[in-house]
Amino acid sequence: MWLFFSLLALVPCVSSVKDDITPQHFTINLDLPPEKRWTEVCETRKDDIVNLVDMVKKQIPSVAVTIIEKTLAGVPDKYIPEPYREEIEAFADCLGLSAIDVMIANYAYEFAAFGCTSIVGYSSMAGIVHGRNLDFHGGDYLRNVTMTTTFTRDGKEIYDATLFGGSVGILTGVRRGGFSFSVDERDKGSPFENIEDFLKRSMAVMLLARKVMDEQSTYTDAVRILSDTPLIAPVYFIVGGTREGEGVILTRDRDGLRDSWDIAQSGNRFFVLETNYDHWVAPPKNDDRRDPGNANMKKMGPNFTPEDLWEKVLSQPPNFNHDTLYTTVMSATNSTMFRTGIRHFQG
Length: 347
Prior knowledge:
alpha+beta, Penicillin V Acylase, Chain A, eight-stranded mixed β-sheet, five-stranded antiparallel β-sheet, 24% strand, disordered N terminus
């Protein structure tokens, strides 16, 4: 099926696809002690990750950085749960950076603006298919550390993720045989409100997503925990399952679920699509990626293939744009379907 992607460079109607790059892949062995799990990643991509940590820190308001530094210097284990704190500290040792700087980089979602398109659809050809574009303005340094990972336990491949080197949290992933998810930014409130919830020991979005991938194996349980866990920042969690109808957009406030909107409620009956605006509110005219994405999905119809989702929706402007860092298409029922490309828009 995925031979298609090796042939995309030959498709003249999508001029940008010829420059897609397959990211480096790593295996993360969860049976290893936390301090050894990311050694290969760190040693292989050290310079790029150091640059990333530096750039993320510059994106965060200096007052917020000072508050986080003072807080984490005292009792970091109360804010970052194990084993993730140990993994972050090991990254810091390998990189030659302070643990606090790497911890701050793992709060990138809470203090940086990510634009996104996420889609979960039921295809008569392939079952539940989950696709996403992740956008970030001026993100070349993120392209340099975009990678795919397969997490293993007891010698078995448990889940796959697309992530940024230096981060132990996840924005895009699929638990094999269970569920897929992606994170879209929900821009509500301010960074200082995020700081307030950070001090309340709420969970960072990317770390909660990693925890769910580590500990849950079913769509139902993933949806429940992603709905209820207190968070530092509002977010959209887009979750796909393994059966027809198992696709939902969870619109999250910091303290709980604001709205749950699934395929059956969507009106089109075969997919849900989220960009960065509440689905019950019209998107702004200067950033309407929702309506073109919906139109392209409906034009494809429920007989779409994963290749169709990649080419006919996620590779079409405005969902595909100058800020698009990567595209991932995946399915919890088919591990061979997991595919990520680092994108460079040419239009």
